[in-house]
């Protein structure tokens, strides 16, 4: 029942006879939160991570457009050597493209930049600050991703309120100097069978090894070099997306 004049919605719980009264704003917020959570799993399918160092002489805008055209579903800004102002400028160049395409734009490491730029969310590693604090500052609508290397860290991230976990490094990585290769890809099976939030694999993933991630119930893959480090970003995105879409199929696991 709705009284639009008073901008108040009345929700009646018939089962126990109790009712709660919610404002229109609160209701809209709740709907947005539900939508955020329900679509996140799909949005994480091909998660491109962009930093200027990886690009082969093209602009952030061009790289972003090509990746989205090829099927990238989520994007992270990961600039380790720019100051805040430079990162905000970069974001202002690519955010309109992501917004237009419905591709969430996640900021690596920095909650404040996420808030100021009104990006879709933030990704926090183990030493990038507390997830609970980020939630307090950013609110329920923003996506908060967390890093985990094992089951214990994944459970802790979920417990703290992370919306997804990035787990790696699956195959090592040339893009992150201190990345440690997982002892086994079966870590993914263990984590995905234990947490409810979506799990993304990261670290050295490319078109030749992505098939070995199938059947591990991952929401998707996060990639730097195999996407933004290539000459034809659109083609790389198409190939990776095609494979990422098939990851649910158990049969890919033994090879392609
Ligand atoms: C999707 C995703 N997963 C993991 C990471 C790694 O984050 P972190 O451990 O904080 O390392 P840096 O990326 O900050 O070097 C990530 N960025 N994204
Ligand atoms: C950010 C990050 N975290 C673990 S590995 C990694 C880098 C992934 O880059 P690449 O896909 O080039 O290995
Ligand atoms: Mg970090």
TrEMBL record:
One of its GO terms (molecular function) is thiamine-phosphate diphosphorylase activity. Mg(2+) binds at residues 109, 128. It comes from Mogibacterium diversum. Signal peptide: none annotated. Pfam families: TMP-TENI. Residues 57-227 form the Thiamine phosphate synthase/TenI domain. The gene is thiE. This is Thiamine-phosphate synthase. Belongs to the thiamine-phosphate synthase family. PANTHER family: THIAMINE BIOSYNTHETIC BIFUNCTIONAL ENZYME, THIAMINE-PHOSPHATE PYROPHOSPHORYLASE. 4-amino-2-methyl-5-(diphosphooxymethyl)pyrimidine binds at residues 76-80, 108, 147, 176.
């Amino acid at each position: 029942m709705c009284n639009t004049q008073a901008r108040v919605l009345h929700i009646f719980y018939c089962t126990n006879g109790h009712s709660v009264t919610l404002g229109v704003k609160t209701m809209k917020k709740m709907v947005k939160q539900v939508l955020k959570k329900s679509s996140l799993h799909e949005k994480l399918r091909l998660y491109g991570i962009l930093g200027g160092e990886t690009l082969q002489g093209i602009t952030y805008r061009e790289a972003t457009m090509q990746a989205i055209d090829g099927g990238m579903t989520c994007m992270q800004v990961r600039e380790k050597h720019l100051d805040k102002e430079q990162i905000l400028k970069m974001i202002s160049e690519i955010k309109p493209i992501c917004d237009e395409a419905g591709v969430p734009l996640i900021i690596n490491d920095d909650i404040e930049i996420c808030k100021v730029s009104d990006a879709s969310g933030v990704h926090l590693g183990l030493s990038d600050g507390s997830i609970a604090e980020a939630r307090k500052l950013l609110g329920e609508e923003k996506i908060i991703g967390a890093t985990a290397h094992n089951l214990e860290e994944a459970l802790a991230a979920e417990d703290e309120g992370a919306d997804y976990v990035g787990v790696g490094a699956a195959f090592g990585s040339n893009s992150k100097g201190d990345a440690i290769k997982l002892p086994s890809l079966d870590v993914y099976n263990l984590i995905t069978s234990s947490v409810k939030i979506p799990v993304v694999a990261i670290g050295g993933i490319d078109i030749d090894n992505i098939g070995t991630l199938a059947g591990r119930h991952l929401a998707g893959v996060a990639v730097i070099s195999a996407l933004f480090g290539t000459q034809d970003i659109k083609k790389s995105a198409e190939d990776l997306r095609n494979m990422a879409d098939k990851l649910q199929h158990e049969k890919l696991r033994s090879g392609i």
